[in-house]
Amino acid sequence: MGTPEFAVETLKALVENNYNVVAVVTQPDKPVGRHQTEMQPSQVKQYAVAHGLPVLQPEKMKDPEFVEQLRSYNANLQVVVAFRMLPEVVWAMPEYGTFNVHAALLPQYRGAAPINWAVINGETQTGVTTFFLDHDIDTGRIILKKTFDIPDEADVEYVYDGLMHLGAEICLETLEAIVAANGHPDSIPQDSVLDGSAIKPAPKIFKETCEIDWKKTAKQVYDFVRGLSPYPGAWTTLVAPDGKETVLKIYKTRKTGKPGKGVGTITIEGKALCVSAADEQLEIVELQLAGKKRMMARDFLNGMKQIEDYRVK
Question: Quick check: pTM over 0.90?
Answer without folding.
Answer: yes
